[in-house]
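User: I've been trying to design a sequence by hand for this structure and keep getting stuck. Would you show me what you'd pick, starting by listing the structure so we're on the same page?

Assistant: Good idea, let's start from the same input. This is the structure you sent:
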């Protein structure tokens, strides 16, 4: 895994602006969805699509359980809402998501003509709403979707930090268990193949990754 140097200029991320009680209600539901992802063993990210005060659809991150690299929380919610309304365009809707959208999700939102996107915590690794790049700011691509970030950033980031910390601890426990099996009898070590030791999945952020730090 290579780390792309990342030094966002302060103010590049749209972490300003005020949020309404409806926004807070929407993001609270998105956080509930993130918990669902966590219970399923997925990276805890949740999304909710609202039209006014009406919840149209919810989604949580589940690429591992569905064997689907596109099954990010936002895509899941967009698909449900488009099916419900029998329309792939969702212009009067606001999408709440607990993590800054990636490029795939940002473009899907623009294809759906989502009216507004509100995210909680930035994703310095793949964020396409100001962290790595800002697709929403490109006038050639985006004529429809307003963007705001930073709503309930701390609880959303805390869920991610806790998830990755627990996963690192589980990996370490498995490695330690394998080592303790191998240590007492040298003749057993030949039966242990290093490739059988579970390696971290490619989606895991390194321990010192900025996404695991409290948002600034
Ligand atoms: Zn995404």
């Amino acid at each position: 895994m290579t780390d792309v140097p990342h030094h966002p200029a302060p103010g590049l991320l749209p972490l300003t602006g005020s949020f309404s009680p409806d926004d807070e209600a929407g993001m609270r539901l998105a956080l509930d969805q993130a918990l669902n992802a966590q219970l399923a063993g997925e990276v805890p990210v949740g999304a909710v699509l609202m039209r006014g005060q009406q919840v149209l659809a919810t989604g949580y991150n589940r690429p591992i359980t569905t064997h689907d690299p596109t099954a990010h929380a936002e895509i899941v919610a967009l698909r449900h809402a488009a099916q419900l309304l029998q329309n792939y365009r969702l212009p009067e809707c606001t999408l709440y998501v607990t993590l800054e959208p990636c490029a795939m999700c940002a473009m899907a939102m623009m294809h759906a003509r989502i009216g507004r996107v509100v995210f909680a915590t930035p994703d310095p690794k793949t964020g396409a709403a100001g962290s790595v790049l800002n697709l929403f700011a490109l006038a050639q691509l985006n004529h429809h979707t307003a963007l705001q970030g930073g709503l309930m950033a701390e609880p959303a980031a805390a869920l991610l930090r806790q998830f990755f910390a627990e996963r690192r601890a589980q990996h370490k426990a498995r490695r330690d268990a394998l080592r303790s099996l191998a240590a007492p009898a040298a003749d057993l070590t030949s039966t242990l193949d290093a490739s059988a030791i579970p390696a971290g999945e490619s989606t895991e952020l390194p321990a010192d990754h900025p996404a695991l730090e409290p948002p600034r």
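That's my pick for every position. To get oriented when you compare it with your attempt: Helices lie at 21-39, 63-66, 73-85, 103-111, 153-182. Strands lie at 46-51, 54-60, 94-99, 116-121, 146-149.
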